[in-house]
Amino acid sequence: MFGILAPHLKEFTDDLSDEIKYQKIKHGIKDVKEFIEKLASRGKVDPLSDNFARYLDENDKLRHLRYEFSIPKARDIVSDGIEALSPEDDSVYFCGNSLGLMPRRTRDLVNQELDVWAASGVVGHFKHKHNRPWISIEDNVVEKMAEIVGAKPIEIAVMNTLTSNLHLLMASFYTPNTKKTRKKILIEPMAFPSDLYAVESQIRFHGLDPAKELIKMVPSEGENFVSLDSILKIIEKEGHTISLVLFSGVHYYTGQFFKMKKITEAAQKKGCIVGFDLSHAVGNVVLKLHKWGIDFAAWCSYKYLNSGPGGIAGIFLHEKHANDFNRPRFAGWWGSDRKSRFQLDQQFKPIPGAGGFQVSNPSVLNVVSLMSSLDIFSKTSMVHLRAKSLVLTGYLEYLLDKQLNGLGFKIITPRDPHQRGCQLSLKFLEENIREKVSKELVSYGIVVDERNDTIRVAPNPMYNNFSEVFRFVKALKIIMGDLGVKV
After folding, report:
1. Is the pTM of this model over 0.90?
2. Arithmetic mean of pLDDT, 228-237
3. In sequence order, which residues have a C-beta less than 8 Å from that of residue 298 and are 6 or more positions away?
4. Residue 479 contacts by C-beta under 8 Å, 6 or more apart in sequence?
5. What are the DSSP calls for 291-349, one per residue?
6. Is residue 158 classed as helix, strand or coil in its secondary structure?
């Protein structure tokens, strides 16, 4: 992708650091419409034609990553009674924000572990033909995970599942003081239900009332997402009463990418602890958790990290807390010092950093499933993926505006490309039309995610391409026309 970005981003070359590249991307792609039309002008093609989509694909330096994944065939995702137009073709899979596709290598890695188990039994913990002894299986993914989220290895642990990890972290970092003057939790608007349940239960655990101690951000009237100014104002006003600010990095419903650095700075200035649920951000946007000074974060890995359904999750604990062993925590043997772990002396000696929050030994099969995906990430960088993502999602936005002109739906995701991930959420204006649209999209071999009256369309830069975006918009235009919406 940088092949076609370079002329528009001024000296965008591979010898630049990722930080410089990131800044050039941010300054080079501000107006998506203008940027898309510049690319079309350079290629001397009509930006609304399928030739332009092919031009973008041909100049995409990340296009080879697609072949690392198993792409579902259209015939395999079509519902009963609906016949796909091209059943032998690949489906258009824009649902990585719900479940990422399977890397081809995952099957081999899982089978290798099954073979070791069959041949070696318990010996596989210490002697492993593929040099992945189970006793330290997480070592195969921690450093790669740290790179993806902008952290140090000591700040990362791969363990458990998302909500379990949030509970473990909040047990340490949501500690209402004895005078009960700082006991509130601030969360985003329409927080993911599991996050809300976890937060409410933590408040009750401390004998407090969520109705009084939970501050839920609400968008301004007529808005679909909350502005940074609104967030900063509530932190400034209520910060002295807030114990924990817990936001998502990218909102699951609207696709808004929150200004994590500025939220963190403002909240910590008021004495608040800051945590993030990064389930829709990790592997999607550029993160700099260590540099931003975030206290803690948690995420699942089955969305943009492609680890498989129910895959193992991860946590971040900033290095500044690495040796703070006085905080309360729920301990388990895998968080204890490795050298004494098997001495069974019943003395918990927490590992410094995020590793000390581990409770049980991780599932080997889940870890190697994650490893197969992280190996693909190692072939590129989050900066490169983000660059393609900005253009890919921008191209989707451009075609929707030009070809459908917003009739029948509205985009409720921020229009600023730097305030969103790879997702556009389309909210349909007529009652019950979303269900009909989703059903018809499936008949074209197109997979998207549904939430109430909204479909969430998420072209993933690792395995989606520009021709698929063109195919989606073309199908949607036909469907809307067939449903009587004038386009």
Report:
1. yes
2. 96
3. 162, 165, 166, 169, 275, 276, 277, 278, 313, 314, 315, 316
4. 437, 440, 441, 444
5. HHT-SEEEE-SSSTT---TT---EEEE-GGGTT-TTS-----GGGB-TTTGGG--S---
6. strand
- Please answer whether residues 404 and 480 qualify as being in contact, where contact means their C-beta atoms are separated by less than 8 angstroms: yes
For the chain, domain boundaries = 2-90+382-482, 110-377
Q: What letter would DSSP give residue 1? A: -
The pLDDT score that the predictor gives to residue 15 is 46
Q: CATH number of the domain at 110-377, out of 1.10.645.10, 3.40.640.10, 1.10.390.10, 1.10.287.610?
A: 3.40.640.10
150 closest CA partner among 261, 273, 5:
261
How is residue 453 annotated by DSSP? T
Q: Which helix (H) or strand (E) holds 456?
A: strand 454-457
State the Cα–Cα distance between residues 434 and 300, nearest whole angstrom.
28
Which structure tokens are listed for 174?
A: 């949501």
Binding annotation for pyridoxal 5'-phosphate: 162-163, 192-195, 248, 277, 280, 302, 333, 361
Per the CB < 8 A criterion, the answer to whether 128 and 134 are in contact is: yes
At 25 the pLDDT is 59
Angle value at C-alpha 392, between 192 and 191, nearest 5 degrees: 10
More confident residue, 336 or 11: 336
CA distances from 102 to 91, 130, 216, 336, 418 (A): 14, 21, 36, 33, 28
Annotated binding-site residues read 162-163, 192-195, 248, 277, 280, 302, 333, 361
Which pLDDT does position 169 carry in this prediction? 98
Q: Which fold has domain 2-90+382-482?
A: Aspartate Aminotransferase, domain 1 (3.90.1150)
